Amino acid sequence: MTFESKQAASKVAELLSSYAKGEADPAEVVKPQVMDLIFAGVPSLDQAIASYRFICDDFLAKVIAVKGMPTKVISEGSNGEIRSSSGKSIAADFEQLLPLLKRRHAWCIENYGAQAEICFRKYVSEIRGLIDGFFAKVPVTAKERTSNISKIKREIGYFARWQQLFYTHKAMSFASEVEYIFILSGEPIAAVWKYNPLDEQCEFPPTVDHRPRDGRVYAVRGNWAEAKGFMIAGPDGYIDDIDRPHQETGCMCHLHWLHGIRRLPEDMLTSKGRAALTARLTIPTMQQTSEKASAPAARKG
């Protein structure tokens, strides 16, 4: 809780205590004063979006500067140089990838704004409910007043930090989108969804339940193996048809990427794909047999 929000919470407590004791103005006067004090120390929705935009702008600038995923060199300490951890192929193709990165940058900010509004309204509803409840049933005894007012002060503290609390759920969103674009440029053929139980522990769990997705395999649309007829999309469909990890508020899942057909589920392999796998498996055996046949006989001592 900031100094300003602590001051606001203390003033709210004084007003409510005085009102409960019959020492203050009527409810129609005191209640608006209480709400004004509460909102005075709370970041607005527009401020939260502006702050997130600044963070995304800064990250995109670093991505552009190093032409890849920016990573600080740990061995050089806090002042370590920021370098790309994405490799030379990303740097070589960076100009073609940049428009995609900018589109995801804009999408992330729009997505953050929509989800932040839901979070903000949730906090507003909760704090209004507590204040309305206090005035609807004014606590009579000192013990009741202390209990009610302490709960309100605690919620004011949470509300004052709503922007920070919400951001922790969205901190990886844009970085995850950047990484997704870079990974796709490496031509993976599918992604395996890995569920994280932390989803269930978040204050703002994803609106979509990701538990059933654990272990599901999603094809990458138009990948090289699909183009060659080695594979088809399975029953889970394509990765671009669903929300991805970190897009939903509170999602902590991740994707495990597949680059070859060997680890695909059987129902995603075509007959051509199975034949290709069989051919690859038999070639080493044939080579080993040939090597054994051509090996010189051991000399007799």
Overall number of structural domains:
2
H-E order: HHHEEHHHHHEEHEH
Kindly state the mean pLDDT as a whole number?
88
Q: How much helix, percentage-wise, in residues?
A: 55-70%
Structural class: mainly alpha
Keywords: Plasmid
Protein name: Phage head morphogenesis domain-containing protein
Organism: Acetobacter ascendens
Explain this structure.
This protein folds into two domains: 3-170, no CATH class; 187-278, no CATH class. It has ten helices and five strands. The protein has helices at 3-20, 27-40, 45-66, 88-92, 94-136, 142-160, 162-170, 173-185, 224-227, 271-294; strands spanning 70-72, 82-84, 190-194, 217-219, 254-258. α5 runs antiparallel to α7.
Keywords:
301 residues; mainly alpha; 2 domains; three-stranded antiparallel sheet; two-stranded antiparallel sheet; 10 helices; 6% strand; elongated; disordered C terminus; Phage head morphogenesis domain-containing protein
Compact description:
It comes from Acetobacter ascendens. The chain is mainly α.
Mind sketching the topology for me?
Layout: H1 3-20, H2 27-40, H3 45-66, E1 70-72, E2 82-84, H4 88-92, H5 94-136, H6 142-160, H7 162-170, H8 173-185, E3 190-194, E4 217-219, H9 224-227, E5 254-258, H10 271-294
Antiparallel strand pairs: 1-2, 3-4, 3-5
